[in-house]
Amino acid sequence: MPYQLLYWPSIQGRGEFVRLALEAAGAPYVDVARGDASSGQGLPALSHYLQDESVTRPPFACPVLVDGNQVIGQTAAILLHLGPRLKLVGASVADRLWTHQIQLTIADVVDEAHNTHHPVSAGLYYEDQKIEASRAAKEFRTQRIPQYLGWLEAVLARNPKGDQHLIGARLSYADLSLFQLVAGLLYAFPKATKRALKKTPRVLALQDRVAQHRRVSAYLCSERRIPFNEDGIFRHYAELDA
User: Fold this and answer.
1) Sheet with 3-6, edge to edge strand ranges
2) Domain limits of the chain?
3) Which of 28, 42, 74, 192 lies most in the core, judged by the most C-beta atoms within 10 Å?
4) What is the mean pLDDT of each run of 10 residues along the chain (242 residues)?
5) CA distance linking residue 94 with residue 182, whole number of Å
6) What DSSP character marks residue 74?
7) By the 8 A CB rule, do 62 and 15 touch?
8) Are strands 3-6 and 29-31 parallel, antiparallel or unpaired?
């Protein structure tokens, strides 16, 4: 039975980290909200899991993964669940916790990236908080991007199995999430991110390797990959990059 992924149909957002894991593993899944409402999919199906009182353990927000009777929210929790099933995490408890820790840290960067264009409130338009966004973006691009990518560089350098992967000697969901993080930062803050990547060659090399992975490469060229856009988490406003 295919996994059911529920996320907004027109943006990559946090759902993309889950899509990449499913695509890299060649796992069967349905991107439910992008389907036809007349066939039980589309936005009504997404709303069911978020709002219907019959869901006894309702997720707060999407992404949501439905795996049989299991309904799981939060990107990192979904990947923690999928990792062993898709063989995208090591077998030991230590490796699984370390992979989860890296994923949670990547989630922190994603939140900070979002907050550069919505530093006051997610309920306001970017145009209503441009002054505050300018200040937040300056801190993010000059301090936080180098710090986060520098930490990921150190994780790669200290991997006992070599610097080809974040954990162990084979592809993990953390590697896939690093790819998506760097891709998003390059879209939103191309100038600042390219400067940071010059000092983090292992991060850049891993991002390139993931992009060349057979299934990932095919996915990136397909219609299933939603382009970055200014409705998602990673948004490019030229005035916020320098």
Assistant:
1) 29-31, 3-6, 64-67, 70-73
2) 3-86, 93-240
3) 192
4) 95 97 98 91 93 93 96 98 98 97 98 96 93 96 98 98 98 98 98 98 98 98 97 96 92
5) 26
6) S
7) yes
8) parallel
Residue 95, CA atoms < 13 Å, CB-side half-sphere: 20
Overall fold of domain 3-86: Glutaredoxin (3.40.30)
3-state secondary structure of 130: helix
Go through the chain and tell me how many residues it has.
Answer: 242
Q: Which residue has the tokens 């030991």?
A: 92
| Residue 6: φ, ψ to 5° | -115, 115
Q: Across the strands, what pairs with 64?
A: 6, 73
Other C-beta atoms closer than 10 Å to the C-beta of 172 total 27
| Residue 17 token pair | 């980290």
DSSP category for residue 26: T
Q: What is the pLDDT of residue 40?
A: 87
C-alpha pair distances (Å), 67 with each of 57, 60, 125, 193, 239: 14, 17, 35, 36, 42
pLDDT, position 16: 98
148 in Cβ contact with 105 (< 8 Å): yes
For the segment(s) 93-240, the CATH number from 3.40.50.150, 1.20.1050.10, 1.10.1740.10, 3.40.50.11750 is 1.20.1050.10
Instruction: Give the residues across from 70 on adjacent strands.
Output: 67
**Nearest residue to 112 (alpha-carbon basis) of 185, 199, 192:** 185
Q: Is the Cβ–Cβ distance between 222 and 178 less than 8 Å? A: no
Paired strand residues for 65 = 5, 72
pLDDT for 1 = 84
Report pLDDT for 96: 98
